[in-house]
Amino acid sequence: MTGTRPARFRRQRVLVVGCGDVGLRVVRRLANRVRVLALTSSPQRVPALRAAGVTPLMGDLDQPATLRRLAGLAPRVLHLAPPPTKGLTDWRQDPRSRALAAALARRAPPQALVYASTSGVYGDCGGAWVDETRTPAPQTPRAWRRLDAERTWRLWGRRTGARVMVLRVPGIYAPDRPGGPAERLASGTPVLRHEDDVYTNHIHAEDLARACLRALWLARPQRVVHVCDDTQLRMGDYLDRVADLLGLPRPPRIAREGAERQLPLALLSFMHESRRLRNGRLKRELRLRLTYPTIDEGWAQAAAASWSRTSHSA
User: Do residues 200 and 235 lie in contact, with contact meaning Cβ atoms separated by under 8 Å?
Assistant: First the structure.
């Protein structure tokens, strides 16, 4: 007579690689539905992951030998870890994705793998509308490495039979996400004047988490999907709108000529690329109805709290 296995062994497993802010938002939505495993290279993160209901697995994407235990561990894998920026033998390649792909191929591959890439793989499109069929043309080392990761995973999917979905993600924001527009506005960092400005794209972190979950179960083989909202604004107009919503001063405007003397290089790279992403596949194929279809909805709660504080202090 065979006994019944405990529920914790019957629940399906999901492996999250790169369990940071977005990963933890995914975890919260998976609570009590599946068993979530998360790779971490930091012993200091173990208590926080356990508190979130995650089973931590020690391993380092930069040390392939530590990834062997991941093979055959979970039928669904969410890969959110970025490529490295240092110690590269080839600046165009993502050795982390290559190492993870090799480790997962050691045993039966997962049914589905979702990789979060960047819309930066398109480079500058001159403000044109872009869908997923456009040929990538990366212009920065960061974007080249992301494209290499995409190609690694799509080839791996064809070889193993796993359903691989690549999510091309633009600027991620949320009022409770550190390092966002509010901090930039508070610092008074300038933006380009309207005639020099670029179109940018956005997605609320919670909607991105929902898209990741849907992709894990609804992924089409070797498919690319844009994960962005319906907002159509230039960068400066976006920050003006956030400033107005939060009751903060609008950022100063400057000409592109001379901007390199006033802005950090990382920010300047974004100001050289302009595009507007179409999100039809997100809505049709992943059947995602955005909770925050524009940045107005995305910042509404923070705006209400800001106005409440202002009225109470008056």
Answer: yes
